[in-house]
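Customer escalation, tier 2.

The customer says the design service returned an amino acid string that "doesn't look like it belongs to this structure." They asked us to rerun it and document both sides in this ticket. The original structure tokens are below, unchanged.
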């Protein structure tokens, strides 16, 4: 077997090994564990706050969609899952994703390990795809951590059972649990655009801190733009605009219009910035 054939044959195995190594390295970092701990703490704080507020017989305020799920927590602890995801999605979850994605390539360059990772048979495209897959794995895990933390706290502090949808119909606890899992998956998918954006920014610099700060800064900027009424024509094209559409999964029947728009928009952002990251990374002069 020639050297070229051996390299091609070893490629898939090397890629799997690289992905496994990336996952292990990412999830063993103290920074990653700290981000997950902060995300897990948000539902705990919300649950305790609601419990204290309603401890004297009062009721939590709110009542509709998104964060307003908080009004239903005292009736059913499962609503803490929806509230926790709604509370973390506008800032905490995308910030965590921005940190991981922004450090993906720039962090390796800053540490002087990027050139080592690019030795055959890895290649730049495979490495970039591996970094993106690792970031998406963190997206999924981070979302599930919030949901699991919220479910545990909700079960501990509040009753569980059949629940009332936004439409006013009753569904079983098992169906509600299934919808909670589906909502968590939709929230994770809603962050694919952010992950691609962060990865693209990470290819533009050799400083991990600069890439992370730029990604988080852009996230905040987009969120601000999405709140300015005068820019209403621009809002449907901002990746954060349909984030809270996951609340439509708690309707009966489910409203799919904005959910589909959200997933389509995320796919568009992932495609555009993923392609931009590939174009930049495959032509970049690697010196570190």
């Amino acid at each position: 077997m020639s050297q070229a054939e051996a390299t091609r044959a070893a490629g898939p195995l090397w890629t799997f090994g690289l992905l496994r190594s990336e996952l292990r390295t990412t999830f063993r970092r103290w920074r990653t564990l700290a981000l997950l701990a902060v995300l897990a703490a948000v539902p705990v704080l919300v649950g305790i706050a609601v419990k204290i507020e309603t401890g004297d017989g009062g009721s939590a305020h709110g009542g509709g969609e998104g964060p307003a799920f908080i009004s239903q927590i005292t009736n059913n602890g499962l609503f803490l899952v929806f509230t926790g995801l709604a509370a973390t999605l506008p800032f905490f979850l995308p910030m965590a994703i921005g940190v991981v994605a922004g450090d993906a390539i720039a962090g390796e360059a800053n540490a002087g390990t990027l050139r080592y990772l690019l030795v055959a048979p890895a290649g730049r495209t495979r490495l970039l795809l591996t970094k993106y897959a690792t970031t998406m794995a963190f997206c999924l895990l981070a979302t599930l951590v919030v949901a699991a933390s919220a479910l545990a706290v909700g079960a501990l502090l509040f009753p569980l059972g059949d629940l009332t949808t936004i439409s006013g119909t009753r569904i079983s606890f098992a169906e509600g649990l299934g919808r909670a899992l589906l909502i968590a998956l939709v929230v994770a998918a809603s962050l694919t655009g952010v992950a691609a954006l962060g990865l693209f920014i990470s290819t533009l610099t050799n400083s991990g801190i600069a890439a992370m700060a730029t990604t988080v800064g852009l996230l905040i900027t987009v969120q601000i733009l999405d709140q300015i009424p005068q820019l209403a024509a621009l809002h449907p094209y901002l990746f954060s605009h349909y984030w809270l559409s996951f609340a439509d999964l708690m309707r009966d029947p489910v409203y799919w219009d904005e959910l589909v728009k959200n997933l389509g928009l995320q796919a568009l952002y992932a495609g555009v910035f993923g392609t931009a990251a590939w174009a930049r990374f495959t032509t970049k002069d690697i010196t570190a």
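Tier 2 assessment: The sequence is consistent with the input. Strands lie at 163-164, 170-171. DSSP finds ten helices and two strands in the chain. Sent an explanation to the customer and offered a walkthrough call.
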